[in-house]
Amino acid sequence: MQSIDVLIIGAGAAGLMCGISAASRGRQTMVIDHANKVGKKILMSGGGRCNFTNYYAEPSNYLSNNEHFCKSALSRYTQWDFIALVEKHGIPFHEKKLGQLFCDNKAKDIVNMLLAECEEKGAKVRIKRSVESVKKVEDGFVVTTSHGKWHCESLVIATGGLSIPTMGATGFGYDIAKQFDLSLYPTWAALVPFTLNPKMLEEFTGLSGVSADSLVSCNGQSFRENILFTHRGLSGPAVLQISSFWQPGDTVEINLFPDTDLFEQLKQWQSDKPKSHLVNLLSDQLTKNLAERLSQLWFSELAHKPIADIAHADLQQVATALQAWQLKPTGTEGYRTAEVTMGGLDTDEVSSKTFETAKVKGLYFIGEVLDVTGHLGGFNFQWAWASGHCAGQYV
Ligand SMILES: Cc1cc2nc3c(=O)[nH]c(=O)nc-3n(C[C@H](O)[C@H](O)[C@H](O)COP(=O)(O)OP(=O)(O)OC[C@H]3O[C@@H](n4cnc5c(N)ncnc54)[C@H](O)[C@@H]3O)c2cc1C
Question: How many domains is the chain partitioned into structurally?
């Protein structure tokens, strides 16, 4: 049996960061992963450019059953710390919008940076290593892997959530939690597109790829960004964001004219552009394709009338249809395409300072496996960096 101070299972964002932080303190550290590459989610993130953090990251960007848990780590390892690391490695990046920072080139820059840091600090990284069993012993843990048995003092679970199983996601972290009697919150797919019923899909045929600036609301939360029609339903950043607040059966409200009191605007157009047809006036905001389709579906008899000929009561209905569109998704695309997993290890089991579990000395959980989920926009990686770094200071 070989021995090491710190064994980290999962060479994703949190695991690699923890490896760097632990090895910097002189701890003999190894990060192992069952996949054939490290950081697969980093590589596929942000459309291949990795939205690695957000200028405005703060605790209110995170969902958890304990809203206070994330505060400590986020304040001890901030977006500015990660940006400094990126700058130290000369990786070019830019703000796309809303504080979201992306690599100018490729997400691989971030993975290479993490691997270079691991090498410099002396953390070993090994891929294609599966874990067969984990056993608590008096002075640590014995972990049986596909490449032999390891004894470690500190064991860090950084195996992430369930989203995108084809990228190596497993429920390993939750299984370890169960093995040690740690409590878990139910998990579900979040930051995920909605699916629609066959009738609606038929109604929206041909709109696949069309997007619209919208305010999307559900259960008291709202997000202002684009929605995107797809051949399965609805996606786009506003939809992904609201999916974290949606439960099966809930109705989502979509305002397709988020900056306007549309009824007032329609009345204004009656005086300014009396001969214009309603659908043409709506096209400026919605695009012609979308305005035509929604008009056909919701107020076909009015669409091609000059606006001056439409009664106020009808204009009010048009405004309500477009500003308070009530949509009932049939479901989501699930873990197959979800960016994150909501729920996970109950944070009450874990110290927000060290990430060690209270019940099992030497056992740590970091990253997405915990019940901490960020909004869309670089917040999930920031959580992985922060929790990984902070745990690395104590393992
Ligand atoms: C398509 C997509 C795009 C995304 N884009 C962004 C973005 O741009 N910005 C952002 O902030 N967030 C983004 N996210 C979310 C972000 O990727 C995750 O929140 C983040 O990677 C979580 O880090 P982690 O280290 O906890 O888990 P992961 O990065 O998932 O790492 C877990 C690691 O554990 C390994 N593992 C799993 N099970 C086992 C096992 N049994 N044995 C050994 N190893 C195991 C996996 O192979 C993996 O390498 C995206 C997610 C997806 C799916």
Answer: 2
Cα–Cα distance for residue pair 61/375, rounded to 1 Å? 6
The residue from 296, 315, 332 where one domain ends is 332
Last residue within a domain, chosen from 315, 332, 349? 332
Supply the DSSP symbol for 193.
P
Do residue 134 and residue 157 come from a single domain? yes
Mean pLDDT, residues 247-257 = 97
CA nearest 2: which of 137, 128, 145, 158? 145
Which of 17, 33, 41, 54 has most ligand 1 atoms within 8 Å of CB, for mutation? 41
Instruction: Tell me the pLDDT tens digit for each residue of 131-186.
Output: 999 999 999 999 999 999 999 999 999 999 999 998 889 999 999 999 999 999 99
CB 155 within 8 A of CB 143: yes
pTM of the predicted structure, to 2 decimals: 0.95
Alpha helix (H) residue ranges in the chain: 13-24, 40-44, 71-76, 79-88, 108-121, 172-179, 198-203, 237-243, 262-272, 278-286, 288-303, 312-323, 379-392
Query: For 334, which DSSP code?
Result: G
Which residue matches tokens 């709109």?
Answer: 207
The atom number, within ligand 1, closest to the CA of 163 reads 53
Asked if residue 179 and residue 199 are part of one domain, the reply reads no
Which atom of ligand 1 lies nearest, measured to the CA of 46?
A: 8
